[in-house]
Amino acid sequence: MDRFGARFLALIGLSLAALAGSQAFALAPDKAFHQYVKDTWSIEEGLPQISVEALVQGPEGYIWVGTQAGVARFDGVRFTVFDPGTSPEMPGMFVQALFVDSQDRIWTGTYKGAAVYRDGEFHGVDDGFGREIDVFQFAETPEGEILLASDQGLMRLADDAFVHFSGDPEDSLRSVFVHRDRIYAGGYGVIHVQQGGNWQPMPLEGELESALVNEFVDYDGRIWAATTRGLLFLADGVWQRYEVPGRIKDPVIETLHADRDGNLWVGAAGRLLRIQGRELIEVVPDEAPYAHGSVLDMAEDSEGNLWLGSRWEGVARLWNGWVFRYDHPEGLHNSLVWTVARDSQGDIWTGTMDGLAVFRDGRFEKLVSGRDQPHPHAYTLLVEDERVWVGTRTGLYWWNRRDEKVEKPPAFSPLDSAQVNGIVPFAGDYWLATTEGVWRWDGEQMHRMASSGDLGGRDVRLLYKTEDGKLLVGTRRGLLYWHENRFQRAEGVATDRDVTAIIELSDGRLAVGTLDEKLYIGRDSTWHEFDAEDGLPVNSPFAFGEADGRLWVAGIRGLYELPLDSIETYLSGAIDALPGRMVLNERGDVSGAQKGYCCNGAGNAKGFMHDGEFWLPTRGGIVHLVPERIKRNSVAPRVLVDRVRIDAQWRDIEPGTALDLPSDKRDLAFGFAVMTYQDPTSVGLEYRLKGFRDEWQRLDEPMQRQAFYTNLPSGKYALQVRASNNAGIWVEEPATLEFRIQPYIWETVWFQIILLIIVLMLIWLGFNYRLRSMQRQQRALETTIEERTEELRVANEHLRDYSARLETASMTDPLTRLWNRRYLASQLPADLAHFHRELSKPQMSGSVLAFAIVDIDHFKEVNDRYGHDAGDAVLQQFSELLVQLVRTGDYVVRWGGEEFLIVFRPMPAEEVPRVSDRIVDEIRRNEFLLDSGANVRMTASMGVAEYPPFRDAPTALSWSQTVTLADKALLYLKQNGRDGWCRVRPTPWVEPATLSGHLDEDLRLLIEREEVSIERG
To answer: Is the peptide bond before 599 cis (omega within 30 degrees of 0)?
Structure first.
């Protein structure tokens, strides 16, 4: 990055305090381009073509996109395409200009003429003589006159045609712009200016003689012009070049946009420029990974989002977001950051996947490469004036700040096989949390303070020193504290839970987070436990911060805030739930939260709060949160019912339309448009059909934005739709579509009255005859019915018996009489569907299905020694034993050969080891009787996996993938001793998609990459 980029980044830190109390910016001027939240749409999402020449937001809130294959109307989810094929009045497909006038008409300029969109359709507009004109740009005068720049000069709208007025420029023009009482028209090497009815040409001189003037903009009190030979501005009646010494010589400027926040965006060939005032503050080259290549047009919407149209990348939307993220653009050598710490000068020390770096003055400097550390991962830090302690996954070292070199005293060698999770000064020494216990450095030697047999002696996550000098220890078995020269268990808090974060709050209370997504707040022996059922977002706390009465909780799922005063309010019963609110979300599936990576690793130095600002390590660099910058979207969305499906055909409808449908149109579908663009996936959408069902219904899939009705009765209806944006702001008035379904003739009141009279007369005339006839036939009919009923019963019994035998035979194993794979494939989907529905119930918390593959150890020896008949006898007895060992409702399946699959119905996850032990032990104790009279003893190996592997994403892995995990566990056990069980579980930090893609790899690789963990019994 050049000196302009560095200067820009340096502005970030200087501007934060000044902006904390200022107005909310749509795009914060002090943020770099890559810091904005960007989403893109191209042909994969329905854009008709990749080159976007024009952008504008229409009066109803749609984003209109002009491409080389027509105009696309975008509602945040769906593109509706207008081209000469769908709109015959549109003269050409290559759209070069879009413009919204004061009458809310949308003007479209193509290479073959102009069209205007009004009343729900496009209308063609020619030059009055039927000739094709190449349209480049539109403008509107204060009097409402529409102007057009074209290859035939300046044209004006008159009587639904664009015509050339006497005196207007006739040479080819590319741009037209109205500013107050002046009209600017740009062509090749000349800018025409009209004021008071008189035109004055202003030729461009020198190298600008061949320049084409593409666009004008009013910015910073001056008129600026984009040309193919650079950027010009008008000063003292003379067009002057905007130049930066040594920079960007004569760039081709495609477009200009002055946003509401004081930025002038300049789309130039090969780069996007940003100017503030007279200073060029940022250059975004097209080849940058975060760029939107070759910007051709720009527009802002009502929410303050900036839209960019690209020559080859479709359309992009930028919004401010709530965090700064520092990564490769700031020079970070590796994006996966494990730990961050701040020194007294304000520098941010950064431990990454590949060494140590420091962030100062907006840039990273790599200090130590991963190959020069005991392990490449710098996992925890302690920063001091003279040195930086760096704990890695296998060992500890110092970075000598004075001599700028790595130091590793020989006395550090006891930690060479330990992962160092935390380093804390305490009682004049340094205490270290490691995977091999708690250690103390006295300046000369390492001393182990907790052996493997002590409570918390192994796998210690972190250490924390309280204000009153108490040392707390977070372990995988709970919270401990150092007292009377030994570790003692803290009572009433996180008992036997994996403690991942600790903070002492400003009022003296402690907050403790655990890996199973629980939050404990209290002191001494008085503690309160909170989780998702109390209103907290689902997240395992890895780091805490406190500022302005709010607790900030960061974890691998994201970052959320919790007002601390709400805790007592909730405990008193004054509110129904804690108002925990997600701010940053890893998956992007939490409404109102910004999507983004956060946050890595439990332990010390996994984030810090300074002056109310939170710094955190992530897989995408460092996240820097300034709470005062969280400005949620305050613009309510626009909602329209914009289409209806009748007879399997969709048709567009305009606002205010009322439908009168014939009697045979009873199956209808309606499409909605919700115009809010910051985060369309977080839209809340409700609808109701008054006259049919007056209750509001939540749309389960807001991105689908459709409602379906079948077999509606005749009558009058009003479909109403309301929506909220990503901040939960709802529209004040719902969108309404009124329609009427005409009745069939037999549904009319008069027809029904006449029909009733006829029916009554027929009943009266036929009653007596019918009565006598029924009496005569009654006895004969009863006899016949009894005979036929008995015959049918006998036939049905035979048929059911035969069908049942046939189906059972096809789904059972002929040798063991156990179910086979076919039965599993037919039965298991229904069981899993029921299990998924039950998961949300409180009593199912912690419950899992378990899949276990059981393999008889050394079964081949039985066949080889005693014969295959003996082997079959063992398999039959083994099958019977397994059926006896499982519960009613569990089922055992012959999986193949000597392998059996057990599917356990839901049980608490902690019961799985106990059940596995019992099954393996019973097999070991059992004697199998052979036909020869001999008894043999067998052992078995069992691989176990729990379903769902990811409880927060139950469908992320299928049951068959879960069985694959169990099979990997079985193979691992058979390679490492047999006669036992092995359970495989995903680690908390692995992504489902990652694990799914690695299932075909060896289990040892998955364990080494910490994607899974195993437990043996």
So the answer is: yes
What are the residues whose beta carbons fall under 8 Å from the beta carbon of 946, sequence distance 6 or more?
848, 849, 850, 851, 909, 912, 962, 983, 985
Q: Is the pLDDT of residue 16 over 50?
A: no
CA 901 to chain centre: 36
The one-letter amino acid code at 913 reads P
Please tell me the pTM assigned to this model: 0.71
Pair of tokens at residue 315: 């359309």
Over residues 453-502, the pLDDT tens digits come to 566 556 899 999 999 999 999 998 899 999 988 888 999 999 989 999 99
Task: State the DSSP string of 874-904.
Answer: HHHHHHHHHHHHSPBTBEEEEEETTEEEEEE
With 80 as the cut, is the pLDDT of residue 636 above it?
Answer: yes
Please state, for a pLDDT cut of 90, what percent of the chain lies above it. 70
- At 167, give phi and psi (nearest 5°): 95, -20
The residue type found at 553 is V
Phi and psi at residue 801, in whole multiples of 5°? Answer: -65, -45
To which H or E segment does residue 829 belong? Answer: helix 821-838
Confidence of residue 785 (pLDDT cuts 50, 70, 90): low
Which pLDDT score, from 0 to 100, does residue 587 have?
76
Percent of the chain with pLDDT over 70: 93
Between CA 243 and CA 486 the distance in angstroms is 70
* pLDDT (tens digit per residue) in 114-131: 999 998 999 999 887 778
- Strand segments (E) across 683-774: 684-690, 693-698, 706-709, 715-724, 735-741
* Sequence-distant (≥ 6) Cβ neighbours of residue 112 within 8 angstroms: 91, 92, 94, 132, 133, 134
Under 8 Å between Cβ of 676 and 656: no
| Residue 791: predicted pLDDT | 59
Residue 541 preceded by cis peptide, ω within 30: no
Reading the block at residue 1010, the tokens are: 């910490």
Summarize the chain as % helix, strand, coil (round to 5): 20, 40, 35
CA distance 562 to 539: 13
Looking at every residue in the chain, the average pLDDT score rounds to 90
At 305, the amino acid letter reads N
- Cα distance between residue 203 and residue 189, in whole Å: 6
847 within 8 A of 906, measured Cβ to Cβ: yes
Q: Is 253 left (phi over 0), alpha (psi -120 to 50) or beta?
A: beta
Give the distance, in angstroms, between the CA of residue 804 and the centroid of all CA atoms in the same chain: 48
Closest CA to 926 of 854, 877, 864: 877
Q: Bin 104: left if φ > 0, else alpha if -120 < ψ < 50, else beta.
A: left
What are residue 943's DSSP bridge partners?
853, 982
Per-residue pLDDT, averaged over 1011-1015, amounts to 92
pLDDT of residue 25: 47
Q: Calculate mean pLDDT across residues 592-603.
A: 87
CA–CA distance, 970 with 788 (Å, rounded to integer): 59
Looking up tokens 């003279």 gives 386
Q: Which residue has the tokens 């007292």?
A: 483
- Contact (Cβ atoms closer than 8 angstroms) between residue 338 and residue 351: yes
Residue 707: how many CA atoms within 13 Å on its side-chain side?
A: 20
- Of 1000, 990, 915, the residue nearest 949 (C-alpha): 990
Between these two residues, 770 and 908, which has the higher pLDDT value?
Answer: 908
Q: Which two tokens stand for residue 204?
A: 């461009």
Beta strand 658-661 with 693-698 is: unpaired
CA–CA distance, 608 with 603 (Å, rounded to integer): 12
Q: What one-character-per-residue DSSP string does 965-997 give?
A: HHHHHHHHHHTTT-SEEEEEEE-TT--HHHHHH
C-alpha closest to that of 582 among 554, 601, 602 = 554
Separation between Cα atoms, residue 10 and residue 360, nearest integer Å: 9
Tokens representing 908 are 């608490």
